[in-house]
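Quick illustration, no need to memorize.
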Amino acid sequence: MTIFRNAFIFSVVIILFTSCATSYKPIIPESVRFSAEENSSNFSYRFDVLREAGNRKLSRKEERKLVRVVAVKLVNNTGQTLKYGYNFKIYSENAEIEVLSASRTVSYIRQSVPSYLLYLALTPAKLTFTSGYKQSSFPLGLILGPGLAGINMAISGTANKNLRTELETSTIIDKEIKPGETFYGLIGIYDNHFMPLTIKISN
């Protein structure tokens, strides 16, 4: 029984380690490589930037929650200051898309901090050793349970904060783009199945 118990504990530890929290790797929209064709126009965009930046867990959440973070580049070659929702809008085919706020986008794809409290279930776990007729145990769970819970909650909380900070500083909402300026940013949208995006500017 001791062997099976130790094997079970070891298996649980391995499973939990593979579901650990991950830090957020910034996208940095200015560094995103848009295609040559897109760069020749006044509006460029790129899907799948979370995955390309190394945020695979968040990228998988995009797919599950049907939300996409998109990098955009907008060159204002008009004679007016551009402001999203006032004199220009973004479309997917002929349908206007809704650009989500940073907080709303994060609410869909953020890592769940409280879920890592489940690591505390390991707290009672002990490793038992048998030598002849003697048995001894080591309170492994007292280290693993609280330790893994605390570390993963700290990592996921910081990752969520960094994600929100980049989305807030890179948002197109309320951003005034003056004539001659080039704007690089990130927008959150509902999944449009990677259909082409366009903008329509009004006077």
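Helices lie at 2-18, 36-39, 49-52, 56-65, 102-109, 140-169.
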